Each structure stands twice: as structure tokens, then as C-alpha cells.
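Why run this: before we spend reagent on co-expression, it is cheaper to look at a predicted model of the complex and decide which construct boundaries make sense. The entries below are exactly what would go into the expression plan.
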Amino acid sequence: MPLFSRIVIVGVGLLGGSIGLAAKKNKLADCVVGIGRDEANLRTARDRGAIDLATTDFERGIRELGVPESLLTPSDSSLSVFTNLEFGEILPELIVIGTPVGSIGDMVWESAIAIDRDYYPREDGGDSSLPLRNVLITDVGSVKETICARFAGLDAEPLPNGCRFIGSHPIAGTERSGAENASADLFENRLAVITPTEPVQYEDIGLLKRFWHGLGSSVAEMSPLEHDRILARTSHLPHLVAVALAAGLLPEDEPYTGTGFRSTTRLAAGPPALWSDIIDFNSAMILDAIREFEGSLTALRKMLEQGDQSGITAILKTAKRNRDRLS
Amino acid sequence: MPLFSRIVIVGVGLLGGSIGLAAKKNKLADCVVGIGRDEANLRTARDRGAIDLATTDFERGIRELGVPESLLTPSDSSLSVFTNLEFGEILPELIVIGTPVGSIGDMVWESAIAIDRDYYPREDGGDSSLPLRNVLITDVGSVKETICARFAGLDAEPLPNGCRFIGSHPIAGTERSGAENASADLFENRLAVITPTEPVQYEDIGLLKRFWHGLGSSVAEMSPLEHDRILARTSHLPHLVAVALAAGLLPEDEPYTGTGFRSTTRLAAGPPALWSDIIDFNSAMILDAIREFEGSLTALRKMLEQGDQSGITAILKTAKRNRDRLS
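The model came back. C-alpha cells follow.
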């Protein structure tokens, strides 16, 4: 039996598309729905088998599995519709928000509301205690605190329509983007960090872990803040360093770049809009990491100025030891 | 007809071994001799077909093609000996110094002297105008000025025994080392920089160009200083940046590094001894490059401090444009 009746992927880019491919390959859901704005990208995702159904209509994609006739493949007609079933009678559904960091929080809310817009807000005083569907929502954003804080704590307004949110961040990816670059094994032997915040159901944590395990990843659990502090150092700082190197490349130097320069600056080819969001959302932690790095670089520069070759050799050795451990 | 009667590679590591493999593959010489200190590495080079003859005896390797019996393969007995032939009657020989930057200059001198130690120095006033062999010497070091200055200018003592030196630097390599990691196509579609300095024979420049072309590379010609200034920015700076990032990796962060961190720090896995030399030999140019990079990083950090997202986005876009051009 699959883990979910269906998985809805909002934003079928590199990560969303790879989740679709891996979920289909590992049979984690009866049906994978892809919602996006770029029809060509959605078609690519569907043609590659990352999603069963593709739609640009957000509400229909979330609510009814309804998609434009023109995008349906013949086999799609066999798909069942899971609305209007009692909570508990059906397998849970999973909504994965794969949009840029800046819009994830809104997309979580919009997804929960779209399940039944008449149902929420319930200002007529009707019974809103019985959710119609069992929906867990997660995301794949590289920053967690800003996103998770909105749904965390006793003061936070609970998501409507039986939805719960737990943040995820699979530490996987490439500098490329779009469903065309998605891959079914992107998450294999990788680590996915999940960042549950109170109030949280123990069962949801277990479900989300099984999801990432099902995609081939191991799972680490930590607070959103702890995640952001670590990733500022291991991902966001290297990204900015690659960016500063690539941005500083003189046109006349271009022919004299080798594989080393390419490797060190590979991350700089990533999508600027996506990274601008990440940097903005995690700026405090990233600033700490940059300042730390500036200190290391200044120390290295001073050794050079003083001709301290043994000091430089010691740093070269430490760096090699650290880097060799990662291979 | 091959380009050279023989090629002698002094230091059969990643680059030296790859030159051997590529020279054999492209039939650039009748015979490739490998000289080194590490017998196991030399055996690997010979077993992989990078060299025909291997020896740890520097003088014999340079002078007589003589190698210890134990290292000879049966086919070696067919090799001719090129000593004692008149200059001009024979194909030129090429000696490629593949040792770390710090020892290249000495190895060039030692190689030239070893061709005929009795012949040089000629203190008895005998005729030293007739060289016995036609030998071009080059190297593969990542720094050129310190090495080439020793053989440049009218005041420089000329190399004995008909030897001439022109510096080379193939912009190719990996973070790995040793003959086991050598590859016949390492130089294909790469750029080799040659840095001829006066006095130089026009024919030697042509010969060296044909050598690098024969290995699959295109060739750029520039002064040693210009080479060092450019490579400080395109190779030595990225190396130190990768080193500073890798050296600063906290043990507890290790599990949370992804392919991005690995790519950005890949260079840090390079051999510390080799890089310590390069940094030492090109420290002035590298200092300029580091200071420039520190300025870029500080500017980026200030944008973050001021929440200047459009400024950051502009840099992300410049970096992506530059990086995309390299792919």
C-alpha cells in the first residue's frame, strides 16, 4: 500500500520534479499531481513521468484533482477523487511546496484554504472540528525559521481543513533548475532535515520521515533555527563565495579559467531569484557565516604578507583533511 | 615522423603521467622516459603505458636512457641511444619538468648539466660551442615568473649542452595526484600557456607549440608576469578560497554538507606541499587577488547588512552570466 493517496507538488522544478520522479518510482502515492504556472515545464514533468496530472489551476489541483482536458493523458481517467471522504477512512495526502523560499509560507496557507474555500473561514459558527481530508503539508526550502515560525507556537492560527505543516529541507540539488533537470535518484543517499515545531502530531513526524526514507534519504530532525545556522555555513556561505568569485571574473581572464575555477564557482549558475530569497530569509545567520569566513581569509592573507609558509601549509593540510573526509 | 626522438619526464605525477599517456597515444616521440623518486609510482606509470622506461637514477635517465635492469620490460631492448650524434642530424629531445614549482628551476639546470657532466663546466677552455644534443626543456608549473627569470635576459647564464628552456603551463588538472590518476585526454580541448623569454629561438617556440597541439591543447603565448597575474585570479585565488572554506568546516556541520559544498571546496583536496610552493612563488600576485576578493565579499556583506536585496540580486545575476559563459 502506498504511503499517500496522492501527493500534490506545488512548483514542479528541479526539486519538485525530482520528488515526483522518486515518489512514482518508489510507489509512495497512488497519484502525483503537479501544480505550476509554466505549462511547458508542467508538460515536461508529465512527459518525464514525474507527475500523473498537471494543472496551472491551483485551486483545482489542490481540491479536485481536476486538470484541463488538454493536459490529461488517457490513463488519467482511472484516477479516483478523494474529496468528501471522512477523515480517517482514507490514506493521508501530502502537499509538497516546491516554490521559491519567499512564497512558501503563503503557498502553505493557500493550499490549506483551497481544499475547501467555503469551509474556511467559518464565520457562520458551523462545526469546523471535522476535517474533510487528512493533509500533511511540507516544503523543500533551504531556509526554515521564517517559514516555520508562521505555523509554530500556541498563538499561531491553525491551518484550516485538517491540514498540518512540518518543514523539510532535502540537502540535495544541482545548479540547474526546472523539471527537465529533475532526477529520480536526487535524494538517494542524501540527508533530509525536517524541522517540526509545536504543536505537532507525533504521527505526522513519522509520516514525513517515512516519506523521505521512501525517496532514499536519511532524515535528521532539528529546530528551524538550528537548521538555518548550520545551512548558512554549509550551503549559503559557499554559494555567496562562489558568487563573489564568479562575479569578479574579468572578461579577459575567461580563457584562462580551468576546471578548478569552474568547480569553485559552479553554484553561481543557480537561479538568482531563488537565491535572492534564500539570502534575504536567512540574512542574520549568513552574516555570521560571512564574517567568520572573512576572518579566515584575512588570517590567510596576513600569513602570505608575512611569508609564513609553515602557517599556510598547516591550513592547506587542515583543509585537505576536512575535504577528504567528505569524499 | 614523431616530433621528438624522446621525451624525458622528470616527475611522473598527475601532469607528467598524463603527458606521457597523451604523448604515447599521439605518437609524439619514439620513446618516453620517466624519472622519479617513487618507484611504486614509476611502476604505475610504466604499467599504464605513460612511459617506456622508468628510472630513479636522474643522471642516467637524462643522459643515457639507461634504467635499472629490474625496471626494463622486454620491448625496451629495441630502444636506440641518442647520445654522441651530431646536432642537427637527430630529432630534438624534450625534457618536461613535472616536479613541484619549488624545484623546477633547479631541475632544469640539473637536467642540462646531466646531459654531459664532463662537458660542463668547461674550465679547460675546450670548445663548448658544439652541443652534442638538441634539447628543449619545458615545465608544467602553475607559476612562471620566478622560474623563467632565472633563464631570461642577456645576463642569464646560458644552459649548457645545447639546452634551451621555455616555460609552459597547461591549464588542466584535477585535485588528485600521482600517475595512477593520469589520463591521456587531460589536455584535450584545454589551453596551454607558454612563456618564452629572451634569448629564445623562434624554432623552439614553434616546436613547443606543436608539442602542446599534439597533446590536444590550444596554446597562448604571454610573458611570465602576465601569466602569473592572470592565474593568481583564475586559479590560485579560487584554490585559497576553497581552502579557507574547507579549513573552516566544523566537524558537527559535516553531515549537512551537500554537493554544493563539495564542489566549492574540491580544490582543497589538492596536495598541500605542491600548493604551498605555488602560493609562495606567486605570493605578490595572489595578495593582489585576495585583497580584490576581500573587497567584493565585504561589499556583498554590507548589502546584506543593509537589506539591499536588489543589489544582491544584481550580483547574483552578474555571477550567473559569467559562470554560464564558462560552461
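Confidence is low (pLDDT under 50) at residues 65-89 of chain B. The beta strands of chain B are 4-10, 29-35, 53-55, 93-97, 135-139, 163-165, 167-171, 191-195, 218-221. Bring this page to Monday's planning discussion.
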